[in-house]
Amino acid sequence: MQRILQALWACGVDYVVIGGVAVALWGIPRTTVDLDVAVRLTPENLEKLWQCLETLGLRPRQPVGLEVIKDCMRRARLVREKGMRVLTFENPDDPLEVVDVLLEEVVPFEELHARRKVFRAASFGIPVASVPDLIVLKTRSGRPVDVSDIQALRMLEDHEAS
């Protein structure tokens, strides 16, 4: 996962880490295999993301091309008609390298990006969604693991407020 995060940073992709990795980076014990990201959904940024992940050997799991994802109308139709809220990239040579890219703005990206916290790794930054934004994103998802994440994130929020 480190090589993916480092590459996204080096490629200049506008993104914010969400999901289980974000929860763990906020200090809440959480195991996860995939990396969930929200990205700026502009054609230029999506192209940078696509090329960056392909350079790492990751390929889309779903049979969807870059031109479809770059087109906001076609992307919205995938979300609405197919229920495709994320585009999953995976490495066929390493099943532990999985990136889920959010295809809709549950929280407007500009706001998500403005409130992010950049955690520092050795030679790169990891932009991570704020705790309140993670709560909104996880509330929308509603999976059982998200419910427990929300509880832990709220406890963290309460602790930071006191």
Strand order of the largest sheet: 1-2-5-4-3
What level of helicity do the residues show?
40-55%
Structure classification = alpha+beta
Top CATH class: Alpha Beta
The overall number of domains is: 1
Number of helices: 8
β-sheet strand percentage: 15-25%
Q: In this structure, how is the largest beta sheet organized?
A: 5 strands, mixed
* CATH-assigned fold name: Beta Polymerase, domain 2
Overall CATH architecture:
2-Layer Sandwich
H/E topology pattern: HEHEHEHHEEHEEHH
User: pLDDT average, as an integer?
Assistant: 93
Rounded to the nearest angstrom, the radius of gyration is 15 Å
Segments where pLDDT lies below 50 for 5+ residues?
none
Chain-wise SSE layout:
Elements lengths: L1 H10 L3 E4 H7 L9 E5 L3 H13 L3 E2 L5 H5 L1 H11 L3 E6 L2 E9 L6 H7 L1 E4 L4 E4 L2 H11 L2 H18 L1
Describe the structure.
The protein is α+β, with helices and mostly antiparallel strands. It has 8 helices and 7 strands; from the N terminus they run H-E-H-E-H-E-H-H-E-E-H-E-E-H-H. It has a 5-stranded mixed sheet with strand order 1-2-5-4-3, with helices on both faces. It has a two-stranded antiparallel ribbon with strand order 6-7. The longest helix has 18 residues, at 144-161. The model has no long low-confidence stretch (mean pLDDT 93).
Task: Considering the chains and any ligands shown, give keywords for the structure.
162 residues, alpha+beta, Beta Polymerase, domain 2, 5-stranded mixed β-sheet, two-stranded antiparallel ribbon, 7 strands
Short description:
The chain has 162 residues and is α+β, with helices and mostly antiparallel strands. The protein contains 8 helices and 7 strands. It has a single domain, classed as Beta Polymerase, domain 2 (2-Layer Sandwich), CATH 3.30.460.
